[in-house]
Amino acid sequence: MPTKPGKPRSEGIRAQNLARVLTLLHRSGPLSRAELTRLTGFNRSTVGALTTELGRLGLAYETEPAAPARAGRPSPRVHANERIAVLAVHPDVDAVTVGLVGLGGKVHRRIRHETERCPSVAEAVDITRTVVGGMASSLALMDRVIGIGAAVPGLVDSSDGSVRLAPHLKWEDEPLTTALQDALGLPAYAGNDATLGTLAESVFGAAVGKANVVYLNGSASGIGGGAVVGGVPLGGAAGFAGELGHTLVRTDGLPCHCGRRGCLETEVNLGGLLETLGLGHADLDELEAAMEAAKDSAAFRAVAGRQLDLLGEAVVNFVNVFNPRAVLLGGFLGALWAFDPERLHRAVAAGAIGGLGGSVEIRRAALGADLLLVGAAELAFSPLLSDPAALSNAISSAEQHG
Who contacts 279 (Cβ-Cβ below 8 Å, separation ≥6)? Predict the structure, then answer.
């Protein structure tokens, strides 16, 4: 492919090389120059020039290495600059959570703003703006905030970030990213929360290095999911794949908003756990504390056991269909699993065909309450990771003329 007039081919190659190094630092953590040389296949002088350029752009910095284990000059360690940050937003039926996330997936701040009812798009954006305004001290410590990512419990059009349908929030054809961008003056991006959770766990959490994974996330708005098969996240023809919460687990079950009965997210739900615990709202830490306190309650054990059995029905289906190496459970599903992990393991081992259930790893997502914020942040970091120099220079120029 010919290069654009006035833009040397070598400049394009250098941009690709910068992107590769910054992405490695972002996803793998601090690496020595020697490790970068090995992982990229570039020669030492090229790696040195690239890390120097990333430092000039303010995207990376170097530290002295620990004492060498053997003779020879130790290689400096290169870090992605965690003070280059984005805002991450997760609207749900009972709260809007806002985070400040730096390069490398570092969550500097997380604030959960509870709501009395489902927030509208305008209310969610207004809450986000208010919460960000209260983060002044944390924002002042950042070198730069470059964008906004939103994790939405619904169908999101990846082409423009609009929410096609988020039934629990009662959102339909809502221009969420436009509203966020207008309110905060930063480029905004949005995606399905469970898909972004799958991405976050694959990059920073329990699914690192695993090519075949099913991920399920449970929140107040229901259950979503995602699958990585052969290292490729399943998106579907229109990008809406992963509605695993609508897997049938009980033929005579409760009616679901989708029009069917007995869907996983209808039968296994946070509301049922909270009601039995005598709670109206709870974040993940509060939920787990309450579940621990109720571990000797026969009533709660019966509700939790029933939900675990029905979750097992769904996981058996996913193991049969996707043959994953691991099934990861996020949100309240992770807390439910931790309450009685062996019950779920036994159900899956006994139900899956060909002994597949006995070999699959079932565990909770590693990122905990930060999971969806880290996933949303990946959307906002994507342009920077694709072309570090171009985006960094453009932002600097805009700041100088602002």
Answer: 286, 287, 290
Q: What is the CATH number of domain 9-80?
A: 1.10.10.10
- DSSP SS3 for 59: coil
Cα angle: 165, vertex 242, 200; to 5 degrees: 100
Q: Which CATH number fits domain 84-195+372-401: 3.90.1300.10, 3.30.420.40, 3.30.428.10, 3.10.180.10?
A: 3.30.420.40
What distance in Å separates the CA atoms of residue 213 and residue 366, rounded to the nearest whole number? 14
Residues 312 and 344 sit within 8 Å (Cβ to Cβ): yes
- Do residues 141 and 153 lie in contact, with contact meaning Cβ atoms separated by under 8 Å? no
**Separation between Cα atoms, residue 29 and residue 9, nearest integer Å:** 30
- Identify the CATH number of the domain defined by range 207-365: 3.30.420.40
Q: Considering the entire predicted model, what is its pTM? A: 0.84
Residues 267, 228 contacting (CB under 8 angstroms)? no
Cα–Cα distance, 170 to 173 (Å, whole number): 10
Tokens of 294: 């109720």
Q: Could you give the CA distance from residue 13 to residue 11 in angstroms, rounded to a whole number? A: 5
The domain locations on the chain are 9-80, 84-195+372-401, 207-365
pLDDT band at 8 (very low <50, low <70, confident <90, very high): low
Strand partners, 144: 84
Q: What percent of the chain has pLDDT over 70?
A: 93
User: What single-letter amino acid sits at 205?
Assistant: G
Average pLDDT over residues 117-127: 97
Give bridge partners of residue 95 from the DSSP assignment: 114
Q: List the structure tokens of 33.
A: 């120059």
DSSP 8-state code for residue 252:
T
194 Cβ neighbours under 8 A, 6+ residues apart: 153, 215, 216, 217, 223, 224, 225, 226, 242, 244
Do 207-365 and 84-195+372-401 fall under one CATH topology?
yes
Calpha distance 12→25 (Å, rounded): 20
pLDDT of residue 176: 97
Give Rg (Cα) of the chain.
23
Least confident stretch, 65-74, 120-129, 248-257, 389-398: 65-74
